[in-house]
Amino acid sequence: MKITLGTVQFGIQYGISNTHGVPSDSELESIFSVASELGIKQLDTAKAYGNAEERIGQLSNSKFDIITKFPNVDSSEDLEIALSESLQKLNVASIYGYLAHNADVLIQNPSLWKVLLEAKKDDKIKKIGYSLYTPKQLEQLLDLNCIPDLVQLPYSILDRKFEKQLAILKQLGTEVHVRSVFLQGLYFMNLNKLPEKLQPLQDSLVELKNLCIENNVSVGEVALNYVISNPNIDKLVIGIETADQLRENINLVTNWKPNNALFSKIEAIEIKDKSLLNPVNW
């Protein structure tokens, strides 16, 4: 199972197409039950996701390996406190992964890497690393000898800026997790109702949807399976708001029939303003 369950929606309302809001405790328990039943073994969360860590600690019944992320911190002591607080909220003695939520914090203060290495040695963390936003961040961190066990980065059918770096990371033995495969739901939006700022993407999105129609597949199917089929990607982080959504997404993967010709046509779609593929710029 190459799916890791993202949990940002469990603590805050998130995503340009989110219409369900934050799930209730009963819905969350149902999501965790379905995830476990479907073979999902990891949860991805963060200190910044509202009360998501607490809710995982209270409702997930310790069924999953957990990856969480720390925010910008000013000192080694602050990082140690952040880790301690996350472990307490998650109700665990150790976690699978602990990442800098934004790799810049390690670039600006590389001494924090020593704190992560020490916590790993103390068995509080199995894998350390960082969440990336640009290929340049990875280049800078590798130059600082911050070799990650685990990274998370954005990657999707139209946003492939990390393509070259995926192979580099695999050579380093790094576990690669990707996020934003649906671009926060952008791929599913009514293209006649795109926010004005995203209008320049309309032609490319229309081309994508037309290719999917011609091949009798959904954009969701293509978005998921394009990423899953990449051998340099270990896990795909997807966020959902309901247990039904989770089942639907897993069905899109299990029922997929490979279509490399379609993938090649999608790769040829031209994006004039690539900065708009970064939700930060929305």
User: Order of helices and strands, N to C?
Assistant: EHEHEHEHHEHEHEHHEHH
CATH architecture tag:
Alpha-Beta Barrel
Termini distance? Answer: 32 Å
**Mind summarizing the main beta sheet?**
8 strands, parallel, barrel
Radius of gyration: 19 Å
Total number of domains: 1
Which homologous superfamily in CATH is the superfamily?
NADP-dependent oxidoreductase domain
Question: What's the number of helices?
Answer: 11
Helix content estimate: 25-40%
User: What fold name goes in the CATH topology slot?
Assistant: TIM Barrel
Largest beta sheet: what is the strand line-up? 1-2-3-4-5-6-7-8
> What is the subunit arrangement here?
single chain
Q: Structural class per helix/strand content?
A: alpha/beta
Beta percentage is: 5-15%
Shape category: globular
Number of E strands: 8
Average residue-wise pLDDT: 94
Residue stretches low in confidence (pLDDT < 50, at least 5 long) are none
Just give the CATH class: Alpha Beta
Summarize the structure in words.
The protein is α/β, with parallel strands linked by helices. The protein has a single domain, classed as TIM Barrel. Helices cover 40% and strands 15% of the residues. It contains eleven helices and eight strands.
